[in-house]
Amino acid sequence: MKVVRTSAGLETPPGTGLVPTMGALHAGHQALLASARRENDTVVMSLFVNPAQFDDPADLAAYPHDEARDLQAAEEAGVDVVFAPSADELYPGDFATWVEPEETGAEGISRSGHFRGVATVCLKLFNLVRPERAYFGQKDAQQVAVIRRLVRDLNVPVEIRVVPTVRDPDGLALSSRNRRLSAEERELALGLPRALESAAGTPDPVAAARAALNGLDPDYVEVLDLSATRSCSPPPFTSAPPV
Predict the structure, then answer these.
(1) Which residues pair with 16 in a beta bridge?
(2) Hey, CA dihedral for 216, 183, 140, 202, is it positive or negative?
(3) What is the pLDDT of residues 94-116, one digit of tens each?
(4) How many whole angstroms separate alpha carbon 154 and alpha carbon 4?
(5) Among the options 26, 29, 65, 114, which is catalytic?
(6) How many whole angstroms separate alpha carbon 123 and alpha carbon 8?
(7) What sign does the CA torsion over 128, 129, 131, 135 have?
(8) Is 114 a catalytic residue?
(9) pLDDT tens for residues 108-146?
(10) How far is CA 174 from CA 93, 98, 113, 145, 224, in A?
């Protein structure tokens, strides 16, 4: 496995699949890498904690980092190239061009600018790696919608592949941040997927979701219609079975 630190060092052949990650790899990332390995001749994984999608420096500083562990996991998954640039490599001091999602990037005030950072770094990765396919988790449904719209609107020649959500036995979707939760906090976090499931199809899903949260106090609750993005990059899911 080759580890590349600079854009100039990237050389990817046709038939490349890209798995963008911020590290702290878990079984959800492994599902993405396994799908990419099955469907591509070459697999590139990015390993970059994107500062542009954090509006709180403390949150960025607390994000888990363990590059040695991530590189070992990537190699075991059959990754051919890990692109692990520095922040300065992707965002030089005079950087001033951003991708601004509109409807699909709507978000609560607590995450202002988050999807601008996601869309910008993904477009940069697509331009640098030039993959035929890129892999994202179904768990981050709004992120998928943003990326599909970006690819469609900006005519980026990449197929977006979406891998079903991987969950812990208790039902909580795997996330790199979950390791920071206590047992009590995990139980509270489980209120969110349970509330969303119970609210689906009700006349007022926002009110129904809030009523079912059982003490969890979310930063924001919004209902977004992501159906318009489904035709942006079919098929919506890979052949991997849901977990």
Answers:
(1) 42
(2) negative
(3) 999 999 998 777 666 667 789 99
(4) 27
(5) 29
(6) 17
(7) negative
(8) no
(9) 666 778 999 999 999 999 999 999 999 999 988 889 999
(10) 34, 29, 24, 20, 22
